[in-house]
Amino acid sequence: VKLLLSRPGAVNSPTTTTASKIASYSTAAVTGYGMTSAAIWTTSIGSASIVNVDCGPVESIEHGSLALTSSRTSYGAEAVFTCERNYTLVGDAKRVCGDGGLWSGKQPKCLFDWCPDPPQSDSTTVTLSGRNAGSTATYECKPGFILFGQKVDKKIRCPEPVLADHAILSVTGNDRAYGRTLIRTAESSPSVQTYKIGALAKYRCERGYKIQGDPLSTCEDNGRWSGDTPQCICKY
């Protein structure tokens, strides 16, 4: 029996065999063609045929259009996607029909293009990667603030420093516009104000006492004073 594959592009290797032998054919060298029956068959089954690979229709996209090259969906055909005005294509702009009968890539989407300015506050700076759909807005807090949630900024301030017995405290740098020094002793009433980051607290002792510990403390960005509260001990 001589096997003849008559469709265009088929690998035709005529082979004479008997009915008890098994003959085989292949389309390995024919890109874009597939077989309608198994690659190995017996002569008693009958003739086989070669068919052109077709990937089928391509899904359309909302707010966009689809164009097929050569108006076909067979092997090698290209599906090209475009979006309407003010919309941005996100995903594969072109999909190709492969020899497996499947379209390459993933179905794209048309997303609304221009994004308005994101919400801002006096305590943040915003950096935009772009204004098209898919762009990001990165928020950073200015010195003295931390990002709290998505919309709320919490202003960081240090409380009134702890004052040991017989100690005298002065705090500078509480106002950015001008330096202000606030002095109080252990006998004075504590104030209810708070201090900005960077404020410097200076400790000294009353006459007859000497300081033990670091006399300087700074308001840090975690809302706490640095170091431990110094003590005043009697010199005699």
Keywords:
236 residues; disordered N terminus; rod-shaped; Complement Module, domain 1; four-stranded antiparallel β-sheet; three-stranded antiparallel β-sheet; mainly beta; single chain; 4 domains; 33% strand
Number of helices: 0
Task: Tell me the radius of gyration.
Answer: 40 Å
CA distance, first residue to last residue: 124 Å
Number of domains: 4
Beta-strand proportion: 25-35%
**CATH architectural grouping of the largest domain:** Ribbon
> Helix share of residues?
under 10%
By CATH, the topology of the largest domain is Complement Module, domain 1
Domain Sushi: 53-112, 156-234
Organism: Nesidiocoris tenuis
Keywords: Disulfide bond, Glycoprotein, Repeat, Signal, Sushi
Protein name: Sushi domain-containing protein
